[in-house]
## 1
Amino acid sequence: MTASWERQTNEPARWYARLDVFRLLGPRRSIDATFRIVKESDNLTGARPGAAWYAAAKQWKWKQRAETWDEAQRSVYRELAAQRIFDAHRDRVDKIERFLDTAFAVLDIADLASMDKDEARAKLPNIRLMIRDAIAAQRKELPVDPNAVAAPEGLILSADDLLAAQRELAHWKRINRVTANHHNAGVGGDNGNENGNDNPHLGPEGSPQGPPDRTLDNNQPKEITCRPQNT
């Protein structure tokens, strides 16, 4: 479909060219200003536009077509502005995520699992603050699920929190490795272990055997032990 500001059926080329000038003058456009611009190129001799100008502007709806074009341009500008805002937002989110990846890589190198609480508190205050600030910035940038449970205001991650998180992460990494090994080796029954399921941490018929005992100290053998849940 032809846009209203484009040349219409039977519209004379001369008057359409003048409409084009009129349109490009912007919201303060006028027939007088259009006349002054095309006067020399069209070899016009009068000081002001004659009646034919006003008749053509009315017949071919110069004002309405120019205003429609104005609105289309505003829509384009709005889309461009929204895209720039989104691009800036995405750039900030990418930087925050890279920062967090770096911070957690530092935690991996620090080997928190081998530290006691006093060592963690002494060595990790700066990284704790960095992670806290990065997570706060991330929460501002990312949309919030209205059904999500909000974290308490003023929540501060402690060195103990980081130590616990590191140990939890290491624990589940070990579980994933053991599960993969059992699955690949075809250990125990048709489904991967002696209980007939894929997860070595599930009891008979898939019932959970309970979380691993995290009270092991670092002098004990590095193995996964489980204790039954209370029923």
## 2
Amino acid sequence: MMRLAAGRPVPAPYTARLPDADNQPGHSMEPSAITRSSAFLQSNDEGSATSFRWLLGQSKTLTLPEQIAAHVGDRILNSAIEPGEWIREQDLADEFAVSRSPVREAMRLLEKEGIVRIHPRRGAQATQLSLKEIEDLQEVRQALVRVVARRVAAHPSPELVAILEAGVAQLAPLAEDPAGGDAFGETLSRLTLCCAAHSGNDRLFTLITSLSLQMSRYTRLGLRSVERRKRSLALWRKSLQAIRKGDADEAERLWGVRLDENSREIRRLLQDSGTV
């Protein structure tokens, strides 16, 4: 039985090695988001995929429903809860030793992020996307991520460059590891979120955070093979060079190429598997 308490700091790894915010002039994103992005990439603590996205732009404490949502969200992203699987509120209430009220609120949070659908009188169900829905999400995400690439390359900050260098260094061994696909994909997603946090556009950051959660499972799918990860790493290295030089056109182009290639691979794998 897992016990969580409302109003208390989220247990490790959710807050591990997250320093207090420092002033970071020149960014509209709140300082804590900038500092936390750096903290993650300079540690080996992967933590929770769901809570990372929420903590990056918030305080260091998640509410009780958010803690439950983070645990359940991770299970969905990791396919421990399969697409289309029903999620029983009472089972979660028993597991976390809470009433059904915070569990119900947790499901609403996950529905807001697009990874759960709530059906009246039936309960919550892990989202199962059609191929068209996946491609629609990819199209929107690609357009937004290209904006991020252009914005961060137009005014590259030394801190962001350091974060990207640390991230690319973490990607190198994962690209070669046959079992490194999930960790590689999650690191890429977090790198993108760190860039969005440095873009100076809060709304852009919020949109990309939500899309990142919805697309996480499929992003990892497209990076399952060592060959695909090596190619993605090569494009990230070139993108980093473009950002260092302040070449916004080249950074945007390279991010577009990388995302297009991953989208094609996701489509191929889903069609071959017949799962959509």
## 3
Amino acid sequence: MNEIVTSSTELFFKNDTLTYARAADFNVGWTTAPNVVLDMEFAHGPVSVFFKLVLGDKYAAVEIVQLVLSEHSAEDLFDAAAFALVLASARLQPLSRRFMHLSHCLRNVTQH
């Protein structure tokens, strides 16, 4: 699984930024479509984020489990805008123009 995640992200994120956290789950029910849950880690700069990537039949979702800042980071200064900048600096390629208009994107941030 680690090789699949690495090869899927290597064109978009800097090396070792997004990794498989060595745990996965598969959910299936009688009345719901199955989904796969992969435990993932994003680590770049002062930030490490542990999250679950949920892949369903017609959707994908991210559930953030824990966000850890390095001990040299000021927690009170870290907000959504600071996190967006960390994500932007972890990317290898600029954000596609079709996403530029989205309201959750910060002005003048072309990489996510």
